[in-house]
Specification:
The structure is a homodimer. The first copy, chain A, is an alpha+beta fold. The first copy, chain A, has two domains: 29-171, Nucleoside Triphosphate Pyrophosphohydrolase, CATH 3.90.79; 176-245, Orthogonal Bundle (Arc Repressor Mutant, subunit A), CATH 1.10.10.10. Helices cover 25% and strands 24% of the residues of chain A. Chain A has five helices and nine strands, in the order ββββαβββαααββα. In chain A, strands 1, 2, 3, 4, 5, 6 and 7 form a seven-stranded mixed β-sheet that branches. In chain A, strands 8-9 form a two-stranded antiparallel ribbon. In chain A, a hairpin with a 2-residue loop joins strand 1 (34-45) and strand 2. The longest helix of chain A is centred in the middle third of the chain and has 18 residues, at 154-171. Chain A is elongated and about 65 Å long. At the A-B interface, helix 1 and strand 5 of A face helix 1 and strand 5 of B. Chain A binds a DNA duplex through residues 184-186, 201-204, 206-208, 222, 224-231.
Chain lengths: 252, 252
DNA sequence: ACAAAAGTGTTATCGCTACACCCATGT
DNA sequence: ACATGGGTGTAGCGATAACACTTTTGT
């Protein structure tokens, strides 16, 4: 118990917590991890859900598609790193982002022990403009239902993110993050059908959503559509918060 | 672009991904993180949900209660570290465990940059025996509804874990992890009421659960209770999987 | 006129809530 | 006898699923 060397000063005093890793190797040996973030950036376009993938320009996995991600700076918060990646890729900052899972397999990254934290972001594709920088042409939207093979363990990260999104989208009104500010009920229905992979009855869907009471009828109509124009609605965040505080809970 | 020194060989070839942190500081500077795990170990006892807390024997926060947790070894998987902590504390290995969130604030740990991954575990308190080791007397069950102040950011970790548990317990039959193998419907109802903080009508709760069809009636009765003994049931995992594959989904 | 999607009303059924009531056991 | 929780039946209300139908626009 007192046979320790000087490098392990932090641990000397504590005979009790023998289960701690501190007692078995010097503490500075633990500070050898790198952290990264990987972001599943999702957009809704042409009736399907897409994610942004980047073609890798470095080994390992050179040439493969991968999630946009990066190492976390030693003095940077993990969440901030995720937003940095998003901003560098899309120029967007005020975007709904949610942490998913953390992937800590020892051999998941060839360069060393890199633990990565997954995120997903919901962007409105109307607002997204590929940044005019040198890497812009390596970025593309791919359909989440297509069968693209991504580098590292990114396929798993995407699958987990989608599962968590689907779970959340049923219980919280976050679907609107993927729609333009003004949308028709039809567009909203299509979005939910694309995300959840289910079909809904039009009449019933409308009644359900309208009766929830957090949509604002903008008294405007769609323009230039080759069919009867739909009424435009917007999500009324304030109203939703008010309803929520009164015990209402979104559910689909 | 070619002004780099030898230590940075990994980065030389890539003019394209300028957004990457790789380009701004040498790569080995990123490998300075430590990882830890913190486990919210939950048990159901005396009609309320409790968690295991450990009194800290080291600075920082010496003497405060904290979540059981530890640093992750450089060659250890994160999930394995979480199970190690659990086993060292309770002796249990086959326990339902779920990752929650990852906490990456720069200053969250005084010793250095330690990013921690949260977990919760659901243990059946009947199976838990405090291990007869020197630190056993520093461990105690505390009520999750009490107002205990934990070290580090552990209050937040607990709050997040409970929120995620409550969400999950509604949609997946994991409540049984907190019950003995054989239980009455009354016990089950009390458990759900404790976890979710809601009250249910006895008759309706029973009908709902029974009709789901994944409980096995053991045709046994409670013993030595000061009231009419209840029928004992067990969760039939096999039956549940079968129902699930047929489209059934648990919901409460 | 037609296609395509918006938008509305009706009905029948299923599920759930509320509530009342009886049963078995230990003290 | 009483307290305590186990256990069951029913009536009525409300949500919603299924489907048919009408409306408005562009081509």
């Amino acid at each position: 118990m007192k046979s320790q060397e000087s490098e392990q000063t932090m641990v000397e005093e504590q005979p009790k917590h023998q289960y701690s890793a501190y007692y078995q190797i010097p503490i500075d040996k633990f500070f050898q991890f790198a952290m990264s973030v990987d972001n599943v950036i999702l957009g809704y376009h042409e009736n399907s859900l897409k994610l942004l993938a980047v073609e890798r320009g470095t080994e390992p996995y050179l040439g493969m598609m991968a999630l946009p991600g990066d190492l976390v700076y030693p003095n940077e918060e993990v969440d901030v790193a995720a937003r940095r990646v998003l901003k560098d890729l899309t120029g967007l900052t005020d975007v709904y982002t949610s942490q998913t899972k953390t992937y800590g397999k020892v051999d998941r990254h060839p360069v060393g022990r890199v633990v990565t934290v997954g995120f997903y972001s919901l962007v409105n594709v109307d607002r997204y403009r590929p940044l005019a920088s040198s890497w812009a042409d390596n970025v593309s939207w791919i359909d989440v239902n297509g069968h693209v093979d991504l580098a590292f363990d990114h396929n798993v990260i995407v699958a987990d993110a989608l599962a968590m999104l689907r779970e959340k989208v049923r219980h919280q009104p976050i679907g609107f993050e993927l729609l333009p500010k003004k949308f028709t009920l039809g567009e909203m229905q299509s979005l939910y059908e694309a995300v959840l992979g289910e079909r809904y009855d039009k009449a019933n869907f409308r009644k359900r959503i309208i009766s929830m009471g957090f949509l604002k009828d903008l008294k405007e109509l769609q323009q230039d559509v080759p069919h009867r124009p739909g009424r435009l609605f917007s999500f009324d965040e304030e109203k939703y918060q008010h309803l929520k505080s009164k015990g209402f809970s979104f559910g689909l």
